[in-house]
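Human: Not sure, check this?
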Amino acid sequence: MRHLQALAPMGLVLLAVTACTPSEEIDVTRELEAVNVIDEHNLNELMLNSADPEEAVAYFTRAVAEKPDRIDLKRGLAAALIRNNSVNPAVTAWRNVVAMDAASHADRVEYAGALIRAGEWETAKAQLDAIPPTYETFQRYRLEAIVADSEKDWRAADSFYEIAVGLTTRPAGVLNNWGFSKLSRGDFRGAEKLFNDALGYDPDLFTAKNNLVLARGAQRNYALPPVRVTQTERAQLLHTLALSAIKQGDIATGRGLLRDAIDTHPQYFEAAVRALRTLDSEA
């Protein structure tokens, strides 16, 4: 009896299917296809975010070959190539994306980003200029700032960096880039402030710590800043300060900082040892 009760719902399902009209059967097929698309979307996201970069490139390469009209798969391939540091193939992949009718402003921004990685500054600028000013995103203005930096258009760069900072809840990276821009112009105090701001959002961002030390060293301030560091990071920052001091002719200070770096590092600090030996041999 229990078996009959369990089979009853299955019988109803079979009866419903056999009673479907042709149009209803098509609807069922479409629903099944929709489920497959959802599953595929989840797989695409997984491959982009979690898979090994080379595996992701292989996956999307096969997918694009099988379904060349799918712009989402072409986007996936382009993004996977960027993640795999395959810059020139990524430029080609994003160019293929923006050539499609369904391409968006976001695609053009990503294409510009790939062009910047490849050093194709003029083409990147042209792509960004082709995007209407009403399209305002963090990524767009971050790239606009980088392009302005490359042209030494400091006023435009500062404006774009400021807008980009206001368009994200995680501005540490762009604040670090902005600080490096100030550093390259010789505005060491302005750079120091921006690196400190970056570390306020992300205290573990080592590039900002190292850049902060460079900005302080350029002002002949050879004391480590009051930031959270590991023992290894402390040694690396002392090494950076030492090189900054030596570059500015403060040899004795540089020698002392190198010794501190060697003593601080929990392992053998080859770069600092080599720099100290070179300094002593020249003396």
Q: What stands out?
A: The mean pLDDT is 88.
